[in-house]
Specification:
- It is a single chain.
- By secondary structure, the chain is mainly β.
- The strands form 3 sheets. A two-stranded antiparallel sheet has the order 1-2. A two-stranded antiparallel sheet has the order 3-6.
- Strand 1 and strand 2 form a beta hairpin.
- It starts with a strand and ends in a 6-residue tail after the last strand.
Length: 64
């Protein structure tokens, strides 16, 4: 759920998620990166710049 303020009007969006896309990222643990295998997840943290884009994306409908 996200509350958007547009021109002084508050709009509640309850079927979306917020995604933060960092423009620069680095591995949180360089040792984790060195031992990673295909399919592993690697935690990233902001890199030399904390610049980011915040995107609002729809939540996928639940099956059934």
């Amino acid at each position: 759920m996200i509350l958007v303020n547009r021109g002084g009007r508050e709009i509640l969006l309850d079927d979306v998620q917020r995604r933060v896309l960092y423009h620069h990222a680095r591995p949180a643990d360089p040792h984790e990166l060195a031992s990673a295998e295909p399919g592993d997840s690697i935690r990233l943290v902001p890199g030399f710049s904390a610049e980011a884009t915040i995107a609002v994306v729809p939540i996928s409908p639940q099956p059934g």
